[in-house]
């Protein structure tokens, strides 16, 4: 029987470097508030941490209502480039490029 390493163990972000962050400009008390941070760990893996209000992509449903929420999600290299492009941060590509040689 082959033992497989848990893929989530690759995502140890206790000493990760924050590459950039983005927020949509709404104040934190606004339902549409959204804040995202992109991290890279020493092994070159990426993590997106996002939070937001009840009308953001990070909202959590509780019963018949939506409340503010937060996620910590590993993302692959293609998603990193897409995220940077959608957030209008092409200057950050060069900071991510070393991790793309694997």
What's the gist of this structure?
With 102 residues, the chain is of the alpha+beta class. The protein has helices spanning 77-86, 93-96; strands at 17-23, 34-40, 46-52, 60-62, 65-67, 69-75. The protein contains 2 helices and 6 strands; from the N terminus they run E-E-E-E-E-E-H-H.
What does this structure look like?
- The protein is α+β, with helices and mostly antiparallel strands and about 100 residues long.
- β2 (about 35-40) and β3 form a beta hairpin.
- A 4-stranded antiparallel beta sheet has the order 1-2-3-6.
- Helix content is about 15%, strand content about 35%.
- The chain has one domain.
- The protein contains 2 helices and 6 strands, in the order ββββββαα.
Features:
102 residues, alpha+beta, four-stranded antiparallel sheet, two-stranded antiparallel ribbon, 2 helices, 6 strands, 33% strand, globular, disordered N terminus
Radius of gyration: 16 Å
Uncertain stretches of 5 or more adjacent residues: 1-6
Task: Give the overall average pLDDT.
Answer: 84
Name the shape in a single word.
globular
Topology at a glance:
Elements: E1 17-23, E2 34-40, E3 46-52, E4 60-62, E5 65-67, E6 69-75, H1 77-86, H2 93-96
Antiparallel strand pairs: 1-2, 2-3, 3-6, 4-5
